[in-house]
Amino acid sequence: MNPSALLVSTNRAEKGAGYASRIAALEDAIDRLYESVPFGTHCVAADGTYSRINALELAWLGRQRHELIGKHKPTDFLTPASQELVRRHVENGGRSGFVDLELELMGADGEVRPIAMTSNWLVDPAGAPAEHRAILFDLTETRRAREQSRLAALAFDALTGICVTDAQGVVLQVNKAFTEITGFLPEDVRGKNMHILNSGKHEPDFYRDMWASISQKGFWQGEIYNRRKDGKVIAEWLSISTVKGADGAAQHYVGSFFDITRSKADQAEVSHLAFYDPLTQLPNRRLLQDRLAHALQLALRSGLKGALLYIDIDNFKTINDTRGHAAGDLVLLAVAQRLRASVRECDTVARIGGDEFVVLLDGLDRSDEVSAARASQVGQTILEVLSRPYLCGDFEFACSASIGVSMFGEGDVAGELLQHADMAMYQAKKAGRNALRFFNPAMQSVVMARVALDQDLRRAIEKQQFVLYFQPQVNAQGRVIGAEALLRWMHPERGMVPPGEFIPMAEETAAILPIGQWVLEAACAQLQRWQSRPATAVLQLAVNVSPRQFAEAEFVDRVLEVVERFGVAAHLLKLEITESMVLDLEDTSEKIRALSARGVRFSMDDFGTGYSSLLGLTRLPLAQLKIDQSFVQSMGERPSDAIVVQTVINMALSLELEVIAEGVETEEQRDFLARHGCHLFQGYLYSRPVPIAEFEAYLAGH
Question: How many C-beta atoms lie closer than 10 Å to residue 145's C-beta?
């Protein structure tokens, strides 16, 4: 019902007192009508404020009627963008009203509601505009439906190919992505069965299972190969859904798919990189282990033996050092080709790192002897072909190989087999290289002993099973000036373990780092005790530093922290380093200078047995050289050693370095050293290394 039409249609000629009452009654009727309608409505007075508003619009605004009438304008509750839209519309000739202007209404709670507003003027009996009436329709559901339609359209034209068929699989509609992926235009496939895409790569059972799933579950998804219009076969990930009618019968099928050809190729490449060596394209360690596990299962079922051949190229480092890594790669490629040509098609040739290769031979024979003979035959063939010269570019390179063989059969373990073959290979190298050796149980006992020692060593660190022994260092007058602290391991079951048995392993496994830290702390703790007694306050204590410990970036800070924590005089601590540490002269010099500046003294241990240069000695702020005991003990047997000792003493004195000789066992040795200028001694002539109680008892007697 149009209020304007009602008012205009009222007889304007009607006069008298009844006119006003009838108009008021009519207005009341209209207001009651607008209170019950399913849309918002309001009237605006001449000053622009609300004069009337129905309950629904009040609910949208979240306001009370008395808050609005004569106090607020309708535009106060529009979003800024909608306010601007109304302003422009009025300025452009919309003063008399407008129809279905889409705006946004903002409630008290901040909720924004889309509306369509129609407005017009109500006129008085004389036909003049009296007030403005507006009708508002909620567009929330309309907008939602519109957005869903838009999204559906976007989805249909998305990057995913879409095809809609009827219940018989006849194509009704396809989207743009379908054409881009398959090459078929809509007119090429419309009205045709989807069989047009069949690649021929799937068996009939594949399609029967697919349609059985669609029939039972209403959908199917999986990987499928289809053929493009140009004949190229592509891999797709396809989903098919059933659209059913009211009776539950299938009316349409919707298929959506995307091309996974590239991703499958990438996946295959990643898989190849994960299982194959990038240089030689041979299986890597991971794939070798998989195949070895399979070979062990075969041996368990069939009783046939197999063999692992661990191959290492002899002196391969030479080619990298002299000709560069590019030349080394060419040799490795040639080795890979020769190995593949030397074994059966069913055998595995793998490169597991550097110049190390492994050949897996399975299904040899049920007899141990026959299987070993065949493995040996293959190994000898490999030795022969790998020893032939390699022509790499413009140069020729000759090398040999060392091979370790580990036989396997029922009950063997993959990891142990590879370790056994590796051990046998090292035996071949010890035998002079270009040789083949089989693993035997004696090697295994050595390995198990090393494993047990490693485990015990870790427990020793945790349980503090180490002690320090002390060997006196004396001067020419026989007075003790200090001692060397020597590490001993008191094993709870084996007793004292000699350092030569566990120090090399500790170096290999980095266990030497916590051990070296313990030695440093124990030595400083002993210096602290000596400093507290006048009779021992000036005793020096020498501590051996391992190469791995010295190479740590934090070595200087750790030494200084321990010295400061125990409050010892730094000049009483003497750190003994070996000649091998001087190879990196710059780093060694920097660390020694940093500690020497704080008072710590350094001694070059076992001098004459390594590779030190005189230039290195002149650049290092050393305090002492220690003559190795091997020279001291053979001075009377080999004149050359006596000459070396004299030379070292003279050199040390020339460089203003203190010199001490270790391994002094006889008075004759001591006297010879003293005659030539060495006046500090250490050895069994004075005392063997002893626990602290015995050492201090020795001090009391001297």
Answer: 11
